[in-house]
Amino acid sequence: MCAIKVHNQKSLCLAGGHPSMQAFISYAHDDYEEFERFNACLRPVARALNFEVWADRRLSPGDYWNERIASAIGNSDIHVLLMSIGFFNSDYIYDHELPAIAARCRSGALTTPVLVERCYWSAFVGVLMATPMTERGRLLPVKEWRRIDTGYTTACEQIASAIKDHFKRSPLTPFDWRRP
């Protein structure tokens, strides 16, 4: 059994589970609809691999937002970059989020770029393998897939594989998630 820290600071036991991890999603506010579509596809992966997703939409009125975002990046084991023209045009992402994510990446966190649309991304995170990849191994921006949801689902499946490889995790079985 393992004790897992949840939002309300209570412990929860998962039979055969792993300590919970956190994933930080970095995206441009111009791409909020794309973030929502991606997040909907990522949620089953998060459940299966026992991690929670953190994005700035979890900020509450009165929060010191800059500190909360910095803390979330620092506490996250996984960072997903929803790369678009707006993403790389965001001064906040460029000046604050990317340097903090790069530091976490150097200390062992997994960083996965998701190419939402064609943009100049390789100069910034070109050393990292991006997703979604077609069956033939070609990187294809999500917005260029015949069905956008297929692009996001493929990206999430590839992210799940990267998480399993990076952290040596296996998905929870249907019986592991039940609370005692």
Description:
- The protein has 180 residues and is of the alpha/beta class.
- The protein has a single domain (19-167), classed as Toll/interleukin-1 receptor homology (TIR) domain (Rossmann fold).
- 41% of the residues lie in helices and 16% in strands.
- Helix 1 packs across helix 6 (148-167) and helix 2 packs parallel to helix 4.
- The longest helix is centred in the last third of the chain and has 20 residues, at 148-167.
- The N and C termini lie close together (11 Å).
Lay out the secondary structure.
Elements: E1 3-5, E2 11-13, E3 21-26, H1 32-49, E4 51-54, H2 65-75, E5 78-83, H3 85-89, H4 91-106, E6 110-115, H5 122-125, H6 148-167
Parallel strand pairs: 3-4, 3-5, 5-6
Antiparallel strand pairs: 1-2
Q: Strands across the major sheet, in which order? A: 4-3-5-6
Shape: globular
Number of separate structural domains: 1
What structural class should be given to the helix and strand makeup? Answer: alpha/beta
Q: How large is the share of residues in beta strands?
A: 15-25%
* Major sheet: 4 strands, parallel
Could you estimate the helical fraction of the residues in percent?
40-55%
- The low-confidence runs, each spanning 5 or more residues with pLDDT under 50, are 1-16, 175-180
- What name does CATH use for the topology? Rossmann fold
Tally of extended strands? 6
* Mean pLDDT over all positions: 85
